[in-house]
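Bug report (template v2)

What were you trying to do?
Predict the complex of my protein with magnesium ion.

What happened?
Run completed; filing so the output is reviewed.

Input:
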Amino acid sequence: MKYSKLFSKTLRQPPKEAETINHKLLTQAGFVDQLMAGVYSYLPLGLRVLNKIEQIVREEMDAVEGQEVLMPILHPKSIWETTGGWGKIDVLFKINSRTEKEYALGQSEEEVVTPLVMSRVNTYKDLPLSVYQIHWKFRDELRAKSGILRGREFYMKDMYSFHETQEDFLKYYETVKKSYLKIYEKLGLTAKVTEASGGSFSEKISYEFMVLTDAGEDDILYCSDCDFCVNVEIAKMKVGDPCPRCGGKLDQAKASEVGNVFDLGQKYGKDFNLSFLDREGKKSFPIMGCYGLGISRVMGVIVEKFNDEKGIIWPESVAPFKIHLIGLDQSEENIKSEAEKVYKQLQTEGIEVLFDDRVDVSAGEKFATADLVGIPYRIVISKKTEGKLEVKKRNEKTTEFMSLEDLLKLLAKS
Ligand code: ATP
Ligand code: MG
């Protein structure tokens, strides 16, 4: 993509109302644009990042045999009345129609997925199964001041699994927990898993996946010696207490919840009275699990974690482009055509390049743009580079001169 053509170029200043790093940097660098608190447009650069995160999540959900679907966001009131959500869920957006009917906007989709799946499940032989979607969610959140960490409209992966027995559910629960940790690792994040603290055995267990960041809205206690972690909100312990698992010391930190998994038990099957025939030929309600992962929030958390005073530093796995090619001295015909040539060659190699081909923009401004946007490799071509490429990684200080061939080798290794 040519930067000269990009309609969403960087801004001189972050917006005044931005309070968090992700809101400031993502807006200033041209990734998102706020329409109102908690509601954003994703611009070309931002959408590329969102798509990459989505694809990493999709591959892992496919690997645990999730079947991808796309369910409606606009729901009839009746399904939310069936489960009690209409009266109980305070974040549910409710819509009046001119026909005097009422609707809800999906804030989670158990109400849609349970009838959808269970109307096709007859006997235990049809189980287990698991379906997921990657779609927008709507919630009437009161505080939407953390940039894309908390949206009123946000992008989520939600998966739902259906099982014959609790045992089978627990096995799958563990599999998905592992796949979540793999996803965060691929995204360049370290997630801690909170445990439901010392509750009774009959309580349903849920796990939250937390990434430490001061922009987060959760407070967690975690052990510095083992992977024990608990949400302060529910915890019976406090900072400095011994770790209940290994005896180490508990530290406290701010964190953002980037995903969670729930044991839904038989609630939804029972609410909708949708059952299957078990091995004895008796009617049985499915044990369900639900598995959420906040894709747009993850994008914000990545920015909160990876930045410096100059801008964003994207991990390679989610960066909008791999290379930020800067053409300097573009008013000189031979330098311009050299830069164009390298741009085309990189594209032929299947490498994603953002090419700053602007003519009347200073070197300083182009470097500042590259630092703000945060693409992993910055490549400069100017009259001083004499047929070579000046290569610098966004997260390193040193530059190196190399041929295009050597650059391709370097990229193949990374
Ligand atoms: P939170 O406690 O942060 O409100 P939640 O417990 O309501 O989250 P879920 O309903 O399970 O979360 O949603 C699944 C995932 O979707 C969360 O783990 C989080 O990553 C993301 N998420 C939830 N609410 C929002 C929001 N308002 N904006 C962006 N992402 C969100
Ligand atoms: Mg919430």
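What did the reviewer find?
The CA atoms of residues 2 and 355 lie 5 Å apart. The chain has a mean pLDDT of 96.
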